[in-house]
């Protein structure tokens, strides 16, 4: 069991107050986030046909929860891992135009997740996507978007402090940008996870860029599906999380693949067979808009702002009984 127990942990808010704070954070953040990025809220599916190719393949080894339907006997239905590809299709189908975008409340099941303080098999996040011009597919666009997201997070810190001053977790005032290759050059003897901890402890908040491809060492910093993020124009928003003495990933995001980047990455991932799927064909034929998008963890944002020791304090999910009992011993109230 991979579990971090903070010394002398005090949850600050009881379960009822925590539930009240969760509602406030989720409702307030999505409104302010939508306004800042110019996004409209839409409804989203919980499952998709496997044949559509729209489900998120994550790192490639995770398998989705799947089932069959009496009304669709010739297809397998998959519970979403995320809506990374579905959103881009929705922008086209719903008639969104240049610099318009959408966000949605996404609920997913990732049954192969290794459970710990901030990983759950149940994923709840704001999935978002916005149309950009082809010549905006660059680092400047990416960094500007990250700064605007960080601005909303910082504003939420102030809002939460006003309502729950005894519970709010103090966040850094700025976010630091670095690539995975620069990080490897800086800490060549550390593992990718140790590098993230080191840079986050130094700067407090970090946007780690260019995740998915191999580094000079011949290994990847981390895995990424080859058919939605452009590995040269993506990244993770990370915070140094004092309650657990480690980094906390809040968001994975990036500028999405164009036709050239997708072919290159499919080949690198030995996944050229995906070219024949409907979604991939639309990208190769230039039928989908160029976009930037990502996901922001709802429970993780609540955890981050309230200084909670376990994501299970802000999310109702399923955990090993051993983990639940160990948490109870240390005043960690799993919902």
From TrEMBL:
Residues 23-320 form the Aminoacyl-transfer RNA synthetases class-II family profile domain. The keyword Nucleotide-binding applies. Pathway: Amino-acid biosynthesis; L-asparagine biosynthesis; L-asparagine from L-aspartate (ammonia route): step 1/1. It is found in: Cytoplasm. One of its GO terms (molecular function) is transferase activity. Its EC number is 6.3.1.1. The keyword Repressor does not apply. PANTHER family: ASPARTATE--AMMONIA LIGASE. This is Aspartate--ammonia ligase.
